[in-house]
Amino acid sequence: MSEQRNTELGDFLRSRRAALTPAETGVPTYGTARRVPGLRREEVAQLAGVSVNYYTRIEQGESHQMSDSVMEAIANALRLDESERTHLLRLAWPAQVMRREAGPEMVRDSVLALVEGSIDQAAIIVGRRTDLLGGNRLGFALLGIDRDARPNLTKHMFLEPTMRDLMPDWERQARNAASYLRMATGELTDDPKLAELIGDLSIHSPEFARIWASHPVAECLHSVREYDHPLVGRLTLNEESLRMPDDSGQRIIFSGAEPGSPSAERLKLLDSLVS
């Protein structure tokens, strides 16, 4: 396990125990003053049924032989959700993570044809580092991105001022973007391009640095997004994210409106304006 991974594992565990209170987990405090936010190491160890010394070594990235049962016990003690458990596994057992090539991504012609031929819904293809790899006409129009451009969508979210106007709940969507990027760090182990992306964002966006420091982790599978589009006004769209079955790390994201809704009519209007 690399030094960077040791740090990531410890930082992640500390962020999760700091987010829990003794009251949430039933840990007695006996009225004593607490000098650390959230749970102490010994309290997590108690909840997980392991020794304090052993848990400390895990949090410091020194333990290389964590069993399934210990992993599950720690995840339960910290009340991790499914995405967080997956991220913990990838950090603790990096040898089991499929390493992906760090080179440029290619999209199959058949996938591009599928997305570009989609009607009534905005569709985009997002790469393993959240690069925009393709999309249909409506997908580019929804995000206000030129069809010849291929920006990184996380950079676009944090560094492009128009995104704050486009998304009324920008803070939540920005956190979602950072959460998915954190998931990618577990898949793209020691990827210099991903590290460069995170470094650039941390330097140029105080908001990203703040959110990233809290170690958010989430898989983006489906959601409801609000848009305040400059051409057609308010849109409420159902978003479905489909991972490519070949496990390339790429996703197709479809965004559509409820049939017959005002958002559906506005989405049709947007399509006609950019046709």
Describe this structure in words.
49% of the residues lie in helices and 12% in strands. With 275 residues, it is α+β, with helices and mostly antiparallel strands. It folds into 2 domains: 3-96, 434 Repressor (Amino-terminal Domain); 109-274, Beta-Lactamase (2-Layer Sandwich). Helix 3 (41-48) packs across helix 4. The longest helix is centred in the middle third of the chain and has 18 residues, at 170-187.
Q: Given this structure, which CATH class of the largest domain is correct?
A: Alpha Beta
Specify the CATH architecture of the largest domain.
Answer: 2-Layer Sandwich
Helical content band: 40-55%
Oligomer: single chain
Please mark out the parts with pLDDT under 50 across 5 or more consecutive residues, or reply none.
none
- The counted number of beta strands is 5
Q: What is the N-to-C order of secondary-structure elements (H for helix, E for strand)?
A: HHHHHHHEEHHHHHHEEEH
Briefly characterize the structure.
Helix content is 49%, strand content 12%. It is an alpha+beta fold and 275 residues long.
